[in-house]
């Protein structure tokens, strides 16, 4: 066993590690320990129809998933679910596009401007440009955006890539043409203090980043306005005729267990996740502190309603900066660490986004390489 | 039990029956009988990563599914899989859009015209118009299409809605700008004789219509050209960051059992499906024959390489016509039968598309109502 682990380390120490994507494999160990309680068994004759609930506007939403979503938000206290439509999607990626589509199709004039405050989630750019829609137009950074006419601001809080708490930055309170999509992928207690129960018009969540089940491709939107929800459902109907039922019933089961563990002293997933993230961030900050080369954002502490105490933030991505005039993504690539270029996020070459949710051994290799980069830099000087 | 069944019939006899969508619940009974062999069990710690195979261009394709797809096509003999890329999608709906996107993005000029010979699958219209892309433009009926420049012809064979065997109708053999997407959703032995092993550039298949597992949202494309496959993968990456893994591994398991039953004398799924469809078509043709009001297409017999004998076609949809000058979709709606309007398929008011894949009791209610419509019509005259 020891031999095997050593071999694994040797092989890892040579290989490229990919921290570009936020593949959340860090939580696998927790779910392994939870064991059979999350196991789903699906027979050959189950889940065959397109339809999940013909009486629901979102006819492809499995009722057990809708229930699990509501119960989890109630238990965590991070979002209001009452008087809202739940729309399920193939990840929040599909839902974000559905929401942009819905708001644009209801706007008075088109194309509708789409903006997000830099640094922003780089995928927003691709999502709003790849089909070259005539309905909306990516207008980039929301800071300084002053174009007239209808617009959509994408607000991610905590923000991807830099982990900051965000609100809208395009301030046009009396402008009926301004709409906001709140992406709350990371508004969960292991990443950030839950300071309020969010109750915005359109709120997006994703299974991937809560529990680490990225392969299931499940996200959901909580939507206040009926017409917007309806248009989102229409989008998903044409885009993929609904959402995998296997993924939905598995998500429902896991979210129910997640909710149950919220009360547990020994198995609380958020406690586990929080400790793991805190530990990783402390290690990373340690390496960065030792270096004269790198920088990381600082996050204020806040009272977390879920944990009932004052806590820091431990984002799913590190927004790593450098004090040198250098192309950081290339520097890291030379050390076989793949990261996302700051430029893709509307920022600069001196920043990269690095996933904090990799497997433990990959994370440790990353720390090692980062520490060594500092040494090499020192020699370079 | 008898009482319960009667009650069910009474309730059905009053209710609206939906044969607009092709919800393929007819096969549920078969899969119930197959029992545990198709059961999948997924633990909480399984399938967590975004990635299925980092060495495959289609990095989100589960290797077991790729294998099952190849084995099934080999066993059935309906399509060539060698020297092709397999791209998995959230149903063939997502794949069709991915293919149109890929071909358009590789075209010399844009927008690329998209056409299909009427009557065509009505969803093609929605798929190619809803995002108002600047890359391609739905140009409607392929018969008589003569616009210059790049174009994509969608060929569905057997055709949805009318069950005919189709080839391209835009005949420009020397035109490099003409591309074809072959939708072979229904090219399986229970619907139509397998007369040749198809080997076109882009071929789409869907799990839904083979086995009836529509809720899984799994489709696949067999693609010859590497660049096209790559662009399709890029589309799906931005559209939904891959495809549900739960659905993929379940599809793999069921396709493997399906392949195994191909050799069975007692459990052959295609034999079962063929008998069921033949039986339904005979009943429907019986009702139509008794009526002076309705018409159905006739299909030639052909030698089926899979069954090793000459057989007829028994499409998944009935393309029901009327000899009266009437709006057939409304006439049926008045009798509480929902169907798809011929006009939506590029045809006329005198035709509708009716699903042949409903539950047995729903199908029988449909036949009853159709038979009664004839009577009512006779009285009307």
From TrEMBL, chains A, B:
<keyword id="KW-0963">Cytoplasm</keyword>
<keyword id="KW-0073">Auxin biosynthesis</keyword>
<dbReference type="Pfam" id="PF04864">
    <property type="entry name" value="Alliinase_C"/>
</dbReference>
<dbReference type="GO" id="GO:0009723">
    <property type="term" value="P:response to ethylene"/>
</dbReference>
<dbReference type="InterPro" id="IPR015424">
    <property type="entry name" value="PyrdxlP-dep_Trfase"/>
</dbReference>
<dbReference type="GO" id="GO:0016846">
    <property type="term" value="F:carbon-sulfur lyase activity"/>
</dbReference>
<dbReference type="InterPro" id="IPR015422">
    <property type="entry name" value="PyrdxlP-dep_Trfase_small"/>
</dbReference>
<keyword id="KW-0032">Aminotransferase</keyword>
<dbReference type="InterPro" id="IPR015421">
    <property type="entry name" value="PyrdxlP-dep_Trfase_major"/>
</dbReference>
<feature type="domain" description="Alliinase C-terminal">
    <location>
        <begin position="17"/>
        <end position="373"/>
    </location>
</feature>
<protein>
    <submittedName>
        <fullName>(rape) hypothetical protein</fullName>
    </submittedName>
</protein>
<dbReference type="GO" id="GO:0005737">
    <property type="term" value="C:cytoplasm"/>
</dbReference>
<dbReference type="GO" id="GO:0009851">
    <property type="term" value="P:auxin biosynthetic process"/>
</dbReference>
<dbReference type="InterPro" id="IPR006948">
    <property type="entry name" value="Alliinase_C"/>
</dbReference>
<dbReference type="GO" id="GO:0010588">
    <property type="term" value="P:cotyledon vascular tissue pattern formation"/>
</dbReference>
<dbReference type="InterPro" id="IPR050478">
    <property type="entry name" value="Ethylene_sulfur-biosynth"/>
</dbReference>
<keyword id="KW-0663">Pyridoxal phosphate</keyword>
<dbReference type="InterPro" id="IPR037029">
    <property type="entry name" value="Alliinase_N_sf"/>
</dbReference>
<comment type="pathway">
    <text>Plant hormone metabolism; auxin biosynthesis.</text>
</comment>
<dbReference type="GO" id="GO:0080022">
    <property type="term" value="P:primary root development"/>
</dbReference>
<dbReference type="GO" id="GO:0050362">
    <property type="term" value="F:L-tryptophan:2-oxoglutarate aminotransferase activity"/>
</dbReference>
<keyword id="KW-0808">Transferase</keyword>
<dbReference type="GO" id="GO:0080097">
    <property type="term" value="F:L-tryptophan:pyruvate aminotransferase activity"/>
</dbReference>
<comment type="similarity">
    <text>Belongs to the alliinase family.</text>
</comment>
